[in-house]
Amino acid sequence: MIIDGKKEAELLRHEVKKEIDSLKLKNNKVPGLTVILIGDFAPSQIYVKNKEKKAKEVGINSEVVRYPKEVSEQEVLKKIKELNDNNAVSGILVQLPLPSQINKEKIINAINPLKDVDGFHPVNVGNLSSGYHATVPCTPLGCLFLIKKTESNLSGKHAVIIGRSNLNGKPMAQLLLKENCTVTIVHSKTKDLKIECLKADILVAAVGVPNLVKGDWVKKDAIVIDVGINKMGDKIVGDVDFDNVKDKVRAITPVPGGVGPMTIACLLKNTLECFKGR
Ligand code: NAP
Fold first, then answer.
1. What is the reported pTM?
2. Measured from the CB, is residue 139 less than 6 Å from ligand 1?
3. What CATH number does the domain containing 67 carry?
4. In terms of residue numbers, what domain contains 71?
5. What pLDDT, in 10s, does the model give residues 128-183?
């Protein structure tokens, strides 16, 4: 089974829109999302444009604050404070990566955790790892959503996650632990990746190495989630050798059209939840 991330993202966006419509009818208020975009890094520009478009489609008041790449850290911090204090703003997102004069940690820490739609603030990270209510980073949240569409009860399953970034691998591990999976995280220093991957009922690859996971690294009946987005010539490929894996497993996400579309849909869902939580 090929998991259709585009279709699932559309369904999730539809649900978000329905809820926003009904909240608007009741309270005459809608969520507001402000994205801060610094510099002219092309992938960030495209990504932010997509976020803005999709947010507007579901009825979120979406605004992009743009700064040139020379902007000072002070100015961005001042803007974040202003947005923290603005009741019409339910979600704040600072698009990464940031230019070198700006300290990422300072910026993330400055965002009110209740408006941290990316789930990067240490309060949200801590709450997630303590098993409390937290805003969860959008990509792993989208991965969990796709996994649960395939298998609703994950209890006792062995999940193997390749990659230990704060953005993907670590929150993915926390989410799967919460689902009562037995979780293994592997990374660049792991001795034998293949042996670890072969144990996986659920395999999540969040690495950034094209076609790393081979056909003989997967167990029959595994659910394979490919987070990777890698350019190979003029093609975009994932971290999983899709053609040689797809017929050996129970379910797999394609790249593109798998996890990618879920990330923005989950951002809209997080914005709605932040709006409701205040
Ligand atoms: P990252 O911060 O670079 O982390 C990559 C992780 O993979 C690290 O933990 C690294 O190990 C591990 N790794 C690198 N090479 C490895 C190897 N040969 N064998 C085993 N592990 C290896 O990357 P990220 O931000 O998590 O992103 C990962 C991928 O997901 C990228 O392709 C990115 O473009 C993509 N992505 C997709 C979405 C989406 O919406 N679909 C969103 C975000 C990111 P060490 O910790 O030991 O260095």
1. 0.97
2. yes
3. 3.40.50.10860
4. 28-112
5. 999 999 999 999 999 999 999 999 999 999 999 999 999 999 999 999 999 999 99
Strands (E), the chain: 32-38, 61-67, 91-94, 158-162, 182-186, 202-205, 223-226, 230-232, 235-237, 251-252
Instruction: Check if 26 is active-site.
Output: no
* Amino acid (one-letter) located at 38: I
Instruction: Give the model confidence (pLDDT) of 48-73 as tens digits.
Output: 999 999 999 999 999 999 999 999 99
Q: Give me the pLDDT at residue 155, please.
A: 98
Give 61 Cα–ligand 1 centroid separation in angstroms: 32
Residue 125 lies in a domain: no
Q: Are residues 249 and 207 in the same domain?
A: yes
Pocket test for ligand 1, best of 187, 197, 253 (most atoms within 8 A of CB): 187
Among the candidates 97, 112, 127, a domain finishes at: 112
Q: Which two tokens stand for residue 191?
A: 């001795």
